[in-house]
C-alpha cells in the first residue's frame, strides 16, 4: 500500500511539473 501511494505521488508531481513547464513556455512566447 505504501509503495503504491508513493508511486502515485511521484506521478502527480511529474504531471504538475509538465503543466508548469508548458505554462512557462507559453508565457515566455507571449512576453518575447
Question: Could you please describe the fold and organization of this structure?
Answer:
This protein has one helix at 2-31. It is mainly alpha-helical and 32 residues long. It is 94% helix and 0% strand. It is rod-shaped and about 45 Å long.
| Fraction of residues in β-strands | under 5%
Shape: rod-shaped
Record field, number of beta strands: 0
Total count of helical runs of at least 4 residues: 1
Instruction: Report the uncertain regions.
Output: none
List the topology elements:
Layout: H1 2-31
Highlighted features:
single chain, 32 residues, mainly alpha, 1 helix, 94% helix
Give a concise summary:
The chain is mostly helical and about 30 residues long. The protein is built from one helix and no strands. The radius of gyration is 14 Å and the shape is rod-shaped.
